[in-house]
Amino acid sequence: MVSHADILASNALLNDATAPRVAVFVGGTSGIGKLTLHALVATGASARIYMVGRKSSAERTQPFIDELRALNPRADILWTEGEYSLLSETRRICNEILLKEPRIDLLFLTAGYAPMFSDRAETEEGIEITQSLAYYSRILFVKHLLPALKAKADAPGRVISVLGGGLEIASAINLDDIDLKKPGNFGGPKAQTQYLCLNTVALDKLAEENPDVVFLHSWPGWVNTGNVHRGVKEGSVWAWFVKWLLAPLIGVVSIRDEVAKQRYLFEATSAYFGGSGVAWKGKPGVNVKGEEGKNGLFLVNFRASCTPNLKVIPVLREKAREKIWEHTMEVLGPYL
Length: 336
Known about the structure:
- By secondary structure, the chain is an alpha/beta fold.
- It has a single domain (4-335), classed as 3-Layer(aba) Sandwich (Rossmann fold), CATH 3.40.50.
- It has 10 helices and 7 strands.
- It has a 7-stranded parallel sheet, sandwiched between helices.
- Helix 2 crosses helix 8 and helix 6 (188-209) packs across helix 10.
- The longest helix is centred in the middle third of the chain and has 22 residues, at 188-209.
- It is globular.
């Protein structure tokens, strides 16, 4: 386990040589993404950061961007507008970034919300919106930006997807209805478990095919991001439950923002997870193949420690991965 003291010590060593020079944050307008973005800028390192957000978020996000620029004038914050729940928009955003950046050091993916209390709703492209945000859009970002993430062999790029790494349950994944379209299959913990398993399976495939890139699937634990209110129908019983019971409970038991942001800055920059970054002198992290000191896919818990889930991942790899990947490429094909 990585101690918080070790995390702070690692983060204190960040400078122009060890911090990401070019980073893309998808979902950096709120929650974990926003906290991590602030922590990265606060290091004082020179960086160019693409902050991808929806048009509806632009006005409320501008004061935060102004704060970041004042905090670190050496950080170039580039607002990049796009509706990333749409795969066509995700492709456009990626192409826009690639026209400017031959190399990307960090791709940080946090967009989305838990479909605990919402009805199924599809985008204009026919994909359930929370699944598009939590899975398809994220994998499409990775696929498009891989050439830039692989641009420098001695300093591999890093991809971090924040959802539920380490919580996979092989028996819970629905391979007969991957998009949960059949009646009774969508909603609540079933959808959330499905999407986190899809993330892990796809990232495992990508990590195997791209050993020169570091992949993390991270579970943040209880962090008071406010996303629990998203997707709840106003005036419903669930809205009452969230407002008066669930949200206050999260406020009491949640991890402090300052602790969470330091943990994610560590995940984004430490060589504990392989690749480049701040050198790690202790025992290195273990990837999903049980390997220490190598690149690959790392499942990371809310303490920023590796939880490889070695009993479940081989089962998913053998029995589910190819079917999920084939289906995913069928969905993403028109946008690649």
